[in-house]
Amino acid sequence: MIFRQLFESETSTYTYLLGDEETREAVLIDPVAAMVDRDLEVLEEHGLTLKYVLETHVHADHVAGDNTLRERTGCRVGVPEQSGVDCSDFKVREGEPVEVGGIRIEPLYTPGHTDDSHCYVVGDRVLTGDTLLIDGCGRTDFQNGSAGDLFESVRNKLFTLPEQTLVYPGHDYNFRHVSTIGQEKERNPRLGLSNDRADFLEIMANLDLPYPKRIDEAVPANKQCGRGNAA
Amino acid sequence: MIFRQLFESETSTYTYLLGDEETREAVLIDPVAAMVDRDLEVLEEHGLTLKYVLETHVHADHVAGDNTLRERTGCRVGVPEQSGVDCSDFKVREGEPVEVGGIRIEPLYTPGHTDDSHCYVVGDRVLTGDTLLIDGCGRTDFQNGSAGDLFESVRNKLFTLPEQTLVYPGHDYNFRHVSTIGQEKERNPRLGLSNDRADFLEIMANLDLPYPKRIDEAVPANKQCGRGNAA
User: Fold this and answer.
1) Which residues contact A25 (CB under 8 A, 6 or more apart)?
2) Across the strands, what pairs with A197?
3) Residue in chain A nearest B134 by alpha carbon
4) Is residue A53 part of a domain?
5) Alpha-carbon span B107 to B88, nearest angstrom
6) Is the CB of B177 less than 8 angstroms away from the CB of A179?
7) How many structural domains comprise chain A?
């Protein structure tokens, strides 16, 4: 499998490119509108054709590249069924793997950061979106987020994956690239096994975060698959 | 490939188990004498037969499990040719891959921490021993270590691997499990690209580290493949 972790520095967002070495088909997960040209260049560099774009959730911090990529490549866009968007070509649902050549992408429904959040398991890797970050997790104070749901999603779904599973987050604000399920169990200061549910709820209730800068622009645009907001 | 990162907590040492899913042959890299029973249990759990043990270098902080594993399993022990040991079954050399079923392990000669240090490239992973650690590197003040050599080994060999290559270190003292070549280029405070050779030499010359606790026991034992020091 061709695997590339691509970075957008304004919002510290990771976009993931997965490509099948035989069929040369590819999928982009969480592409950013402002980085579509870069993404297309990387696809070309590897001789890949974009088959799908997948979203982990409706993002509040950046506008998605989905619609622009669809217009420019003819790819199909998959968005979680809970996202409430009409613009996708298909719905992402747990239990319905997405296949790209020989690559099998298994969606896990992991609400908490938002009520539509999914993670994607690909072999010994899991792309965790904003559900589980390295030493952290996404905030839970908008878009029907729920700290209780996030705790259950991480503990009952992500933490049941093998410990050596590689964790590729949707963001990192400190230039870290990758972790493992075992590492997050051991040292995630919010969700590590030394904390219980009450500890986690207290941490999340006291984060005192500012109102998200781009949410009023990004969420409506992303409900339209990023339409009208390409770079 | 079956891949397990195993931890020994007294010296924060990672031992790596790689197993071929077809042939059920396995290799252990940098096993610790005190953890041989654990290692044999993990092999059994996965239904694997130990074919080889490989060392990244002659360790100064722990006694190797090589000889005990050889006595208990009949595996063959490979040690870098520069290590000056007579007890190995074969010498590890850059340019001479070690094959375990369909797994191809490519040694890279990366002197610096010690004059026999090697890293092992396995597909999209590199096991870096004490040459490159997450946000750090091994010390260079004993066993013919050389900060200049370490700088060249990291910059001219490890940093030429693809950025998404997973870095699995020989130790981590903060419970981190994995990094990438890209991450180390970006944020390793010693060897990251924002430092030049002179910066690195200055950092290494001023570490002011204590004399290694177990070096007087470990190095002579490891020159005998850990003989006489099993747990």
Assistant:
1) A19, A48, A49, A51, A100, A101
2) none
3) A176
4) yes
5) 16
6) yes
7) 1
